[in-house]
């Protein structure tokens, strides 16, 4: 990939990094462990009810974040009179569904509907539905990958012996759907219905699913630190502040505190805002965005992306689940979509001496499309997510034990990550370098 650095700019960057390392720590000295701890303790407290969108916890977190923005001295986003960017979303919940293969009825728990459609009404005469069979002798992983890639509606019939795999698929399916458009157009137009049955041959079938909708109020939080010489050029730092809220009892605890998932990255957002305000060196404007409704399918970032002029956004650094060590160990994090723009390269090359920003090690999971950077990337903005999440290896993820106690052992590491982000993005904020744009056709 072509480097954006001229010899002169590289010298400036080198001197900047060297000055940050003179104390021998390799870290910026503005963001302290005590500051990080004080914020994440608030965001992950039981009193915030897991920052749930439906239980009022997200509103409590919002008031705290807005208070911090005011204390720091940020101003509302462009066109906003306050820090809240209000929007309405609708929650879609299936009220019931079933399938029939000839005369054989298939009902819960032997049916999974993975769909963003408001209803389904399929039969053998419905066009463009692909019927796929998965048996015990099949290469199950390859079959499921094929199902995932297929651009059509799919009816997937699975052998009853595959119940454990079927159940894992069901656990990963979002049962509730959220959208923001009054005329609903789902981002993914295709639906997949999984059936667990020993009926392998049939001439007729039907699949029916009905739903109900309810309206929910939500809001993103946007604060801006105006630039000195390039006020119309923005660098975005973002995180989602909402969480799961209440969940089924996990060892007697029903609050998913989200200390790591949302809490750690929102802590980074607030400490970075204070850091850059105190440095007072940003030539470009910096926009700090706390997204809501990420747990509802990334609706908050989707709404935000429809309100901005993408040509004014130079870069977008999203942070998501950074509270613990990555699989690469301490003093490291990974960046999704590593080769889709030069933003990851710039961050990597300007990190403090000991810190390593690495490519996303879980590329098969396509995490680039799973976080709040993606709606911005679809507009061509160099938008990537920084994370330390160990996919499939964190037993506390999305549970009641994702609380402050599981983060405290890593608080020094979390602080080092935030400081590394502050140092490595300095050349972009100062206007010295500009990352290449993302090609929307490449994602």
Quick summary of this structure?
The protein has 443 residues and is an alpha/beta fold.
What does it look like?
This protein has 443 residues and is α/β, with parallel strands linked by helices. It has two domains: 7-89 and 216-442, Zn peptidases (Aminopeptidase, 3-Layer(aba) Sandwich), CATH 3.40.630.10; 103-203, no CATH class. The protein is 28% helix and 28% strand. Strands 1, 2, 3, 5, 8, 10, 11, 14, 15, 16, 17 and 18 form a twelve-stranded mixed β-sheet that branches. A four-stranded mixed β-sheet has the order 4-9-7-6, covered by helices on one side. The chain is elongated. Residues 1-27 have low confidence and may be disordered. InterPro entries: M28_fam (IPR045175), Peptidase_M28 (IPR007484). Keywords: Signal. Residues 1-20 form the signal peptide. This is Peptidase M28-like protein. Residues 220-407 form the Peptidase M28 domain.
Name its key features:
single chain, 443 residues, alpha/beta, Aminopeptidase, 12-stranded mixed beta sheet, 4-stranded mixed beta sheet, 28% helix, elongated, disordered N terminus, signal
């Amino acid at each position: 990939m072509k480097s954006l650095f001229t010899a002169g700019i590289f010298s400036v960057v080198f001197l900047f990094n060297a000055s940050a390392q003179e104390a021998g720590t390799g870290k910026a000295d503005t963001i302290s462990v005590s500051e990080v701890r004080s914020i994440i303790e608030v965001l992950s407290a039981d009193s915030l009810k897991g920052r749930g969108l439906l239980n009022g916890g997200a509103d409590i977190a919002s008031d705290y974040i807005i208070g911090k923005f005011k204390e720091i001295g940020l101003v509302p986003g462009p066109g906003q009179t306050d820090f809240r960017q209000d929007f309405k979303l609708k929650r879609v919940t299936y009220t019931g569904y079933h399938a029939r293969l000839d005369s054989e009825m298939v009902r819960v728990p032997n049916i999974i509907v993975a769909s963003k459609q408001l209803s389904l009404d399929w039969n053998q005469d419905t066009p463009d539905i692909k019927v796929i069979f998965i048996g015990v002798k099949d290469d199950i992983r390859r079959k499921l990958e094929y199902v995932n890639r297929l651009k059509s509606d799919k009816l997937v019939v699975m052998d009853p012996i595959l119940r454990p795999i079927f159940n894992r698929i069901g656990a990963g399916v979002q049962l509730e759907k959220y959208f923001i458009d009054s005329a609903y157009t789902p981002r993914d137009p295709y639906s997949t219905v999984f059936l667990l049955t020993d009926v392998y041959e049939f001439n007729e079938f039907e699949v029916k699913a009905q739903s109900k909708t309810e309206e929910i109020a939500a809001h993103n939080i946007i604060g801006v630190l105006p630039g000195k010489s390039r006020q119309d050029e923005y660098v975005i730092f973002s995180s989602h502040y909402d969480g799961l809220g209440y969940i089924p009892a996990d060892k007697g605890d029903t609050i998913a505190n989200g200390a790591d998932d949302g809490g750690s990255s929102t802590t980074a957002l607030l400490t970075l805002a204070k850091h850059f305000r105190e440095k007072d060196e940003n030539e470009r404007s910096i926009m700090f965005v706390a997204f809501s409704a990420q747990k509802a399918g990334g609706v908050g970032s989707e709404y935000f992306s429809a309100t901005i002029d993408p040509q004014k956004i130079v870069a977008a650094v999203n942070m998501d689940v950074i509270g613990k060590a990555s699989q690469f160990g301490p003093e490291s994090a990974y960046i999704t979509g590593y080769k889709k723009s030069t933003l990851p390269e710039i961050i990597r090359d300007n990190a403090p001496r000991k810190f390593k920003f690495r490519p996303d090690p879980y590329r098969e999971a396509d995490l680039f499309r799973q976080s709040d950077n993606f709606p911005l990337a679809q507009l061509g903005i160099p938008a990537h997510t920084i994370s330390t999440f160990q996919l499939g290896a964190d037993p506390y993820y999305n549970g009641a034990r994702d609380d402050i106690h599981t983060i405290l052992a890593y608080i020094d590491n979390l602080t080092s990550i935030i400081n590394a982000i502050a140092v490595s993005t300095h050349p972009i904020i100062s206007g010295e370098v500009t990352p290449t744009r993302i090609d929307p056709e490449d994602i």
